Amino acid sequence: MLDDWNLQNILIVLLIAWAGYHAIIFLSMAVRLLRVPVWPVRMQAADERSVPGLTPDQSALLDELRQLGFEPLWHGSQIAGPNAWPAAVLRHADGVSHASVAFNPNALTGYTVVMCSIDADGQVLSTTNRLGWFTRGCAPEPRQADAYADSLAQHLAAHRARVAHLAPADADRAVALILKGLDESHARLRAAGSLRIARSPAQPDHLTLAAALRCAFGFMRVRRKLTRPYACAATAPAHRRAFFIACFAEMERQEADRAARPNLKTGLLVVSMAAALLLWTWAFDWRQAVALVLILLIHECGHAIAMRAFGWKDLTMFFIPFIGAIVTGRPRPTTTGQQAVVLLAGPLPGLLAGIAMLYLLPASQGFWMTVASMAVFVNLFNLLPVTPLDGGRLVEAALFSRWPRVRVAFFVGSVAAFLALALWLESKPALIITLFLAISLPGQLRMARLQAAWQDEVEPAAQVGHLYDAATRSGRAPALAALMMLIRNVIQLQHVRRPRLTESIASIAVLALVWAGSGYALTQTVLADRPGAAAETRSPAQLAFDRVWDGAEFDQPADAVRQRLHDAARALGADDPRHIDLQVWQAQQHDGGMPREAVERLLQGGLDGRVWKRSDVLREHLDGISYPALGLPPVDRATRLREAIAWAEGIAPALLAPTIETHLRLAEAIDDGGDSGRAGTMLGELRERAASADDCRCELSRVIRAQAWFHLHHGNADRAIAVLEGAPTAGEMQSPGGRLALDYGWALLAAGRHDEAVEQMRIATRTRRTDGAKPARLRQALDLAHALRKAQRDDEARRLVEQQRPWECAYARSSEAPAFASAPWEQARDRARNETARALCPPLAMSAAGR
Description:
851 residues; alpha+beta
């Protein structure tokens, strides 16, 4: 199986994973920004002469600024809605540079410091640090820049380089202008159209969608710069722990203050659902895409309902194309039993509905049976005991929450299981999930260490400090922002209380019961339709007839077989479909095939046999007309085929599928007669009929293939490629062993895209064995060999033919080659295959292939 994963496939998977990873970060940042409240800023002076109420790490930052040459000029508070932080404005000894400090902690930037200067026009020139992605996205100003520095000293140096030409400003005037600029910052955002203005002054504004997307794009551009460690006095070893606790508390406060914005959540769900629907329609069929989206939506709604019932807050649901869907929220402390309900509430409704549909729907409801099978597969797959699926998370909560390191071992096993599953199914989405899981493994190890260090009955702030100590004990702690998310995840895991023994046993028992019940239900529905199971329901008379029908008695003379069948049929019920099979067999015994009168009686009877359906009877009769007509001149051939189609549509107007091949032969005859325009129109009309007919869904691909070969026959390879790529069945072009995949390879070959054609032929000639092993032989090996020759890879083509020994090699240089009628417009393919066989088949292989 690994041989099928060539470098191109691996690069495609890595590219998709890279793009998906960055897309998730981008969209997560955009959604997060849309929910952040934006309050007007008000700077309020303090009465004291020194900055009041500073913590040791905040005082250390002021001392560092003093060491850089700054002295405080103003102190007070920065007020934004219900929140307030100490603030100060300092002046540098050069009289040009000033520092505006707001003591609101941030893991990426430390405390917010903005370097400012006043130009000759009385305008403020500011240099932020690691905030430019936000300020430029909201309200870009030419007088504003960002240093993206790694320390206060670098920040100051970058600013002084910008303002080296300026003269010192009056201290009081500079402070007044800086404070005024901060007070007016909210008004500037409104003037720039970056805010969605609240309905009430008591409510905060929020960023518009355009502003949030600009900011998120800016964040992605500088994300690597933001992950570099930031060094200042507040983050120095002596104060780093206190600063981290302050940052964590600020993050929790911001999470609690985030607006619910239900319209935003609805928009996110609708947009992500539409994107998933479009991409799955492109990859599969639109009806299957709609079904898959609804199955996932029901699944996630089950989770959401259970979460809401157990007090989860801030629920958000969205789709991830090619991966699935997810619902997130802020959990409250729950028991393991409640967590089990939340996890099972997603897959169980869809699983039960799918099994019920398989049990109740007749087999003739092909599409709905497919939907039911999809619902069963998706939800049973989600119950596999593998992280991060629901079944794996249930096993983790029930068994491994007490032993974090055992949980990591289970996670490693899950990664290995996903990798094996991805390779076995040849599934790029499964491989992408495996890559994400593998990338997260170091974080899982760090989480396990912190879980082992968890202390019960400890205040939240003290718990954060204790976990910080545990994470930094080895001296290799991650960056502050990453460490904050790590500790937050650990705290959320601890919201699920450690299970009692009864809860663990009950959770695993329920999961096992679901699997056992699903297996039993499937054996009573899907597996019950297998021939072995069906034989048990046949009566003795039916068994006796079937033994004659299927047995070796057919090797006897026709009269003896006829007598045996008639004797067996006398014991059958009058409405048994085997009587129809007997009538078909009797009609087939006539010289020259089934007489038209017998076919008409069978079709007008309106009944299907056990083996022979009415559509099969009509198809065989039309084939008996079409193939002998291939030797006629185009005009006579078209006349005969037209008469056959007119008769078929008159006798069985509801059966289009059996007439498709005859329609195609008629279009080919008209084309051979010189009227290619009429032939192309017929193909287009036939495609529309096939797409809308209930019995013709499986024949639609056949018509599309014929359209492609029609264009290839007339030398228009690009048009053939467009027909195949734009077809509703385009997803079949990546199906191993599929004819549509093979035809796409021939179209690429005709367009001169030889390397792409070779890779496409590899897909088309590959087969998948049910036991997961690599197939010993390829299908249509000569097609791949011809593509390799066109790509100037003759040695590889010769080795392929020697290994595969296609059956055509038996006749490659023989005058006794059997005559086969080419499919419509595919004569060029047959000629190329024969030419390849004559050129590459080894003489010794011909007799072996003949045997």
